[in-house]
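User: Assemble these into one structure.

Assistant: Restating your components, then the assembled model:
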Amino acid sequence: GLGVLGLELFKVDCISFSCPFFAVYQVFESVAKKYDVMNDSMTLGIHRVWKDILMHKMNPSPGTLLLDVAGGTGDIAFRFINYVRSARERQLQRKLKNHQNLSWQEISESYQEDKFKLLGDSQVVVCDINKEMLKVGKQKAQHLGYSEGLSWVLGNAEELPFDDDKFDVYTIAFGIRNVTRIDLALEEAYRVLKPGGRFLCLEFSRVSNPLLSRLYDLYSFQVIPVLGEVIAGDWKSYQYLVESIRRFPPQEELKAMIEDAGFLKVDYQNLNSGIVAIHSGFKL
Amino acid sequence: MWPIADGATSRSLVPHSAGVQGRSRPCQCLVGSFLLRFNIYTPSWVVRPGGYCWVTAECSPLLPHVETHHRRDAAPFWDETHRRLPRPSRPAGDPLRSSEGCYQLYPGHIPTSPLQKALLAAGSAFMALCDPYRHDMVAVLGETTGCLALPNLRDKMKHHPEGYRILQERPRIRLSTLDMSKLRGLPDGSLGREYVRFLEDNKVSPDTRMPPKFVDDEELAYVIQRYREVHDLMHTLLGMPTNMLGEIVVKWFEAVQTGLPMCVLGAAFGPVRLSARKLQVLATELVPWAIRSGRNASCILNVYYEQRWEQPVESLRKEIGIFPPPAVRV
């Protein structure tokens, strides 16, 4: 039952409830401010490369509507905006090249039209269950100068506050591991995606290479909680993080679960021999 | 041999059992399993109860080897709707299991391997230097480096009648255990009155001391907790405020008294952030006095402060052996 589930999953001292939901919430409440610093130090900055690869795999064109679930501090959202902006600029430059024989008046008119469409109607909705993470994300957006095309919504991945068939792409980066019922989250993802929409999931997965697996385990269990204590003052949250990674289903299992939710052409790509995997599926 | 379904190479030729004497078992960490491929067994003095070497084992040699229910063997929630892969069961000494699997000695105890303690010591020292307001880092540094000094302190306490009583009764200095109004009512110059004055002037509270987490012995955890709680009383006895200069003087005194590496490091590196004038005062008057007092004084942890609130500070200083503070404005 839920009691056994809670006890099994969460032996964090400060958690007095046995409900996994509250446990996860409290963990991320305490780590929100130091989340980005911890990510950089734990992965030695490689998480940026992983997220860039995800963005390249997505290859969004201007006009895409993206839903980034569990995207609290906005890493994927900002990368999406940058990608779409540069794609848009390339589009505009191509258009301008074709217009080189126009008079200067006509060119300035075409500038006026495109001025308000720097993003080309692309929008990203960042949805997270945790207010603190969203707060940090909003502050980062302000600090980095991202103003348009971003929305911040408080919501649960298992019960999204959106209508059916709304989004072109659904991403969940390093978040699906923290969801209590992965199958529900996948069903919700299927529901809110438009037909033809893409599901992308970036998550820690199973390392197949035995030597790398041992090194990875040694690093995870010996170093990461220490980093958590020294940088964020929180050993238990990062102990929980490492254990939740070990508990998470491996690549093939997750692929089966995604197929069960109704997605087609489900595939996965291992990064760093399985430390991280990108799963992709289409709603057709 | 365990059932392996995930393609990992079979790990052990030797079945796991606790406390096997005789033939040395290989350590199951990275190095040990590598050596095993060449039929080289790690010597038995390296392997701790639980099957792991002293670098990666989370149980200290003093802890009883406890076979605990390994949480990864229980069905994860998603198994109810999806196929389940049989997982290899791992011994309790495996670093892949949660740290809570090892015997937790006191509330808040986090068992750590020697490697983790070394990393913690280095990391907390660096962090404490970068950001002196990270008091938790100073505390962690004290716990992880105190493995030699703490048993010394505990033995000093055991061999003294008052210290022995403290170890038996385990008093705690907390706002909930102190009668603040009674202490305020005591005459000026008494320990209780001066202590409350110190707390109010410097706006500190005895409840902000971090409980120990990384000490692998329950009695030593109390010793370090007592040391932290008595720190404010040290300020009172030495007459030092809680500014940078005052803290460094108290650290010098405590370094001589306790021998804790954290105090020594704090005393040595603390002055780095001081101005030249303060450094001069420190070097010429305060530090020599602190060292002399520290050497002359009996162990500060052997005083049952809770039973001496009415005693005048001067008389307590004489009794312990602390020289009168120099007439310098700190």
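Confidence is low (pLDDT under 50) at residues 1-18 of chain A.
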